[in-house]
Write a structure and sequence with these properties.
Distance between the termini: 66 Å
Number of strands: 8
CATH topology of the largest domain: Jelly Rolls
Order of helices and strands: EEEEEEEEHHHHHHHHH
Largest sheet: 5 strands, antiparallel
Structural class: alpha+beta
Radius of gyration: 25 Å
CATH architecture of the largest domain: Sandwich
Number of domains: 2
Strand order of the largest sheet: 1-7-2-5-8
CATH class of the largest domain: Mainly Beta
């Protein structure tokens, strides 16, 4: 018999943990707005609260959670009437599927709620007291940090499944589907910036991915690099301007499309169109 080794695909992989704690709060509790370059899951264990997510208030009841994406301003407040208990864990993760549930009120199924207790239990045994940075506890039980990772991944996958059941086929539940959506979101954003400017650093900050991962996702879906697509679309827009009866100079087109100089614009234009902007305009007038 031939044994086939089947690689296991990871839908969600938690890379690092930043904070993990639980608190009780008064109805007038107000946390300051914050933003950071990692994910944050806020789960209301009891009572009611208001989560600010990107400037939009979200009402949360006991058993509900919200996932804040990296670099999105957020805060947590009491509702003015009820005390509440909450659990927060923040972490680093580059799994695209999380984009499908961030910023939404998420119902946490009853069978998953004990996972927050298990995460806190392992956190207390694995790390010393203190908010941040987390420091490994001397003599901690073996495997505690990995248990936190596994419980948190299980919690997030469980919430994803629950949301998929509620939202049907339109909900993205696989890496492939999410990558297509992320690539389309990047492409759509680039289209809005053709007469502007952007770079990989801005795209990574906006879409919460590292440079290599963002490039990989876009190339997989569209077959070319992000910046190659962006420059090509700028040149196609330049061709539209050169075709227009209302003649603009090459310098004006270069400036409107945010090229550093007419010379650089001409060089990039030749690379993509096979001729200079002036030769292109002349050939079009001749019907070439």
């Amino acid at each position: 018999m031939k044994y086939i080794r089947v690689p296991l695909r990871n839908l969600i992989r938690i890379r690092k943990i930043v904070t993990c704690f639980t608190r009780s709060a008064t109805p007038l509790h107000r946390s300051g707005s914050e933003r950071h370059n990692f994910w944050e899951l806020v789960y209301i264990r009891r009572g009611r609260a208001v989560a600010q997510a990107g400037g939009h208030p979200k009402q949360l009841m006991g058993g509900e959670a919200i996932l804040h994406a990296p670099n999105i301003p957020h805060a947590l407040e009491g509702d003015g009437e009820d005390t509440f208990d909450f659990f927060i864990v923040s972490f680093e993760c580059h799994s695209p599927v999380l984009q499908g549930i961030c910023g939404r009120v998420l119902g946490v199924p009853m069978k998953l709620r004990t996972l927050t207790d298990l995460i806190l239990q392992e956190r207390r045994m694995s790390f010393a007291e203190g908010f941040m940075p987390l420091e490994a506890r001397h003599g901690a039980p073996i495997g505690g940090e990995q248990m936190i990772q596994l419980y948190l991944e299980q919690l997030l996958i469980g919430v994803l499944r629950s949301e998929a059941e509620k939202n049907g086929a339109g909900f993205f539940t696989t890496n492939g589907e999410m990558e297509k959506q992320v690539a389309e979101d990047i492409r759509s954003y680039l289209e809005t910036r053709i007469e502007g400017e952007t770079d990989m650093q801005e795209l990574c900050r906006r879409f919460h991915y590292g440079k290599s991962r963002l490039s990989e996702i876009f190339r997989k879906v569209y077959g070319e690099s992000v910046m190659h697509y962006y420059r090509r679309r700028k040149i196609e827009r330049a061709q539209e301007y050169l075709d227009c009866p209302e003649e603009r100079s090459v310098s004006e087109i270069a400036s409107e499309l945010h090229f550093d100089s007419p010379q650089y614009f001409a060089r990039i234009f030749r690379k993509y169109a096979g001729m200079s902007p002036r030769d292109y305009r002349t050939s079009r007038r001749r019907g070439g």
